[in-house]
Design goal:
It contains eight helices and 13 strands. It is of the alpha/beta class. It folds into two domains: 73 residues, Hypothetical PUA domain-like, domain 1 (Ribosomal Protein L25, Chain P, Beta Barrel); 181 residues, SPOUT methyltransferase, trefoil knot domain (Alpha/beta knot). The protein is elongated, with a radius of gyration of 21 Å.
């Protein structure tokens, strides 16, 4: 059964068991791609943890402006939030690698993404960039996590924060919760060893994802961390960790480390 993200007004109507109209892009997909007709059902979710069994009441598609009107039949049982609120702070890699991290990280259960510009980032965010380009990039990233949430069965959609710089991200990271910095340096300790010595805090019976223990994972750029970034992290209590002797690509490292942390917290059990 198709899973459809309901925008705010549609979700509010679904919660009240009222009829609602889908937004233009969603209606276009449902009528022209999925070829859905009145009477067919789908799962609607609000991106914040609630979802409903819905049925199409009326449609308008070929040759006209796409239009879909639907109604919620019943609310589905909510899935309990993961026991770890994981933020992946990813130094922006070149090309479309960040798209891969957003998509696969969403499937794994990452709660938040925070792209940033590091000292050795190949891709640059803030040099001669206008506002329209930044807005378009943010919209594209948002669409990626929305589509990934619909595909993997999540009722919530991860937050993608506005792109920042290393100093801003790292300063907030140490105050938000436990913070790990992936590093290929010989001074970094194996993540496995650190988790054995000090396991992640586990939370049970939480109602909202934001109530779970927060962990931030700092992922460096293709060129690695600068000495200044390492010094800053050490001064402020960031835990420098490694994933072994192999040098992983930045997008690979992000997903491997996220998988380990979510598994250790019980989020993938």
């Amino acid at each position: 059964m198709p899973r459809i993200l309901l925008r705010y007004e549609a979700a509010e109507a679904a919660a009240a068991s009222d009829e609602f109209e889908l937004d233009y892009e969603t209606a276009k997909k449902m009528t022209r791609v999925l070829r859905m007709n009145p009477g067919e059902t789908f799962i609607g979710f609000d991106g914040r943890g609630r979802e409903w069994d819905c049925a199409i009441v009326s449609t308008q598609g070929e040759g006209k402006r796409p239009y879909v009107r639907a109604i919620a039949l019943n609310e589905r049982e909510s899935v309990a939030p993961l026991p770890l609120y994981l933020c992946v702070a990813q130094a922006l890699p070149k090309g479309e690698k960040i798209d891969f991290v957003l998509q696969k990280g969403t499937e794994l259960g990452v709660a938040e993404f925070w792209p940033f510009e590091a000292g050795r980032s190949v891709a640059r965010l803030f040099i001669e960039e206008d506002g329209e380009r930044a807005i378009a990039r943010a919209r594209r990233w948002r669409k990626i996590v929305e589509a990934a949430s619909a595909q993997c069965g999540r009722a919530d959609v991860p937050e993608v924060r506005a792109a920042g710089d290393f100093a801003t991200v790292a300063s907030e990271a140490v105050s938000a919760g436990r913070c790990f910095m992936l590093d290929e340096s010989s001074d970094a300790r194996p993540l496995r060893q650190i988790l054995q010595e000090e396991p992640l805090e586990r939370a049970e019976g939480i109602e909202f994802a934001s109530d779970a223990p927060h962990v931030i994972l700092l992922i460096g750029p293709e060129g690695g961390w600068t000495d200044e970034e390492r010094d800053w992290a050490q001064r402020y209590g960031v835990e420098s960790v490694s994933l072994g002797s192999r040098i992983l690509r930045t997008e690979t490292a992000a997903l491997v480390a996220a998988s380990i942390l979510l598994w250790e917290s019980g989020g993938l059990s």
